Amino acid sequence: MDVSRLAARTQDDLRRRNLFLRRGDTPTTLEVRVDDGSRGGFLIGWVKQEPHSFRPGHRAWQSYARSAINEPGYWHGRVRGRYEVYGGGGEETIEKALYEVLYAASYGDVLAASEAGSGRSGTYVGTIDQRQAEWLGSLDLPEGMTHLGGGKMRFTDIAVAYFRGGPQSGPYIDATHLLYLDPMDDPYQLTREGDA
Fold first, then answer.
1. Of 110, 122, 134, 195, which one has the fewest beta carbons inside 10 Å?
2. What is the pTM of this model?
């Protein structure tokens, strides 16, 4: 399994989420990890080639992703989380299986705990659609989001960390500070205050 042969889009998706791959405990297992500042990164999921669930004699790539976003305490610190199977009977390609991990994994609590422990503090700002800004500003979680009016939003480092570790199936922020609210819409650029 040569990870350098992954499709360019898959490699770009991993890079934009500050994720990297590492060989697992078997030759057909590939771990997906996030750089959280710890040695070796934090495991958010893995893909593994296994017998296909519905097609005897065939093999498929099965996806396992960390599910923590609905765990009590997720929005207030690091939680244990659990790893669940995604993608039904498996995927034909490793790229599709990796996408399932990105689509489902939640690890914002890990990044927020790392950010809180860093001692840094700061904020990000960006102007987004007015209705979406009103919606985000009305949410209780994550804490640290403020609608400043006219679609301008401010996010604390901790709020950004929660969005960075959000599943790709919902709103998330990538490593270049792009805020993705809807897969059908272009993302919004956030800027760290003081960096402009």
1. 195
2. 0.90
